């Protein structure tokens, strides 16, 4: 920056440079364009443009002024730098250090050094996480294109793809789809069992769903899958719980919380049984055959096809609990928790003390985020089989998740 000869002059110049650097970066962080201009002006001359002077300023971690502006979402400073680049004769190589032509909104690149895009911001988070959380699709997509790690996993097993899908960030998802790490992240579920595609579908972001499914190899017929995911997401909305009183031998007992969708599933099953009438031997044989075919598809991982076969078995014989239980297992594999819950509720009605059915019910309730109800179901199973480790683990997980949710909601 300063080409001086004597040691004293050199030290003085270095001190001025440090002061200018500090002033520039503080002004950028505070969205203060006049402050940035004042700090950089002494370094601008006939041979060095404002843009070129800005490009020379880096801190000890190789961060440019754009790091600080972008991390603080200093839009005025970003716009000023963009105007400088667009208005000056800057060669293509230099320009791409700040600009990405595919981004119509922000068009900025945080640094010329790809490795630095993963350096934490002052808030301790990588720039990509901060950009995604802020819904800044342009910045996030440019960061990924510049080498930012898009495979980062946050609390609750949430990925950048989950955040982008929930916020409708198509550009970010497209950039992720161009990397192996991004594609892997796009196929992951969070701790609630939700995929990035489901979150996007729940918000009505069809284009995001398409991008995600194409990246994960499920692009064929994506429109149909989009509608399925929307339905699953809609069903996830918690049904209204009702408080009823148990009655034992004609006397009022303790209160119990029931869920309307579970009650509705049982009522629908009863109507199906009544409508079917007597189950003949031929019906049972047909149902058994469909169950066998369903088991075969389940074993091959074709859970959707298995659902169809178990459904046909139920149509032939709606009185057999294993058909509902097996179909429930398929729904759990497909993360279709509302449908899994409906089948599990029917199994419980048919066989209240069958622990396989109880485990299915607890798992489905977990998927619906009904943690207290899931823990209660697991506890009921443990009273029948105290040594069942799977139910113990499930109950402990439900209790833990319930406490975490209560804290978030301010109930603890």
UniProtKB/TrEMBL annotation:
Alphabetically ordered keywords of this record: Repeat, TPR repeat
The protein's name: Uncharacterized protein
Residue numbers spanned by region Disordered: 275-300
Alphabetical list of SMART domains matching this protein: TPR (SM00028)
Domain of life: Eukaryota
Species of the source: Triparma retinervis
SUPFAM superfamilies reported for this sequence: Ankyrin repeat, TPR-like
InterPro entries per record: Ankyrin_rpt-contain_sf, TPR-like_helical_dom_sf, TPR_rpt
Sequence ranges of Basic and acidic residues compositional bias: 275-294
Molecular function terms from GO: Hsp90 protein binding
